[in-house]
Amino acid sequence: MAEFMTGLKRTHYCGDLRISDVGSEVTVCGWVQRVRDLGQLIFIDLRDRTGIVQLAFNDETDREIFNKAFSCRSEFVLAAKGVVCERSAKNPDIPTGDIEITVTDLRVLSKAQTPPFEIVDDSKTGEDVRTCVSNTVISTCAAVPCSITSCCAARLPRPHVITLPRTALSRSRPR
Q1: Which of 41, 87, 110, 174 is the most exposed, having the fewest neighbouring CB atoms within 10 Å of its CB?
Q2: What is the DSSP letter of 45?
Q3: How many Å apart are CA 161 and CA 152, to the nearest integer?
Q4: What is the maximum span of the chain, computed from C-alpha positions, in angstroms?
Q5: Is residue 84 packed enough to be buried (19+ CB in 10 Å), middle (13-18) or exposed (0-12)?
Q6: Model pTM?
């Protein structure tokens, strides 16, 4: 059953964390990109619209949280609270590759069935299975009208609000 975010509020986006945040307690939310189970060590790559960050669970993690992490699968929606730590094995391929979050609280906000293909920009999945527009193109095309809407709706106090007009999602596109 899905949990609620009661008592948690996002403090950072996944792609915004850097080595300068080491030691900070953060709360991030996003989709599970990948889970790596190494026995007494579990890593979850959590993504949102800004990027990916690694969540770490080890033998010092509370058993209930560790078991919850063990049950996570691709595309689950999570909220995680923890402390930013420097990674021992750094990944220069991603901006957040120098850090990981040692999780102290984990909430599964929504479970998902395993999708028929991996949701990544450079997927080799056939056209018959994948949509004809990649995730990057959709987010780029949606950002322009959203920025116009944001300027017009100057009364919105919250940052990073994206409003998708219904017509942008339903317009026919030439093939």
Answers
A1: 174
A2: E
A3: 13
A4: 54
A5: buried
A6: 0.68
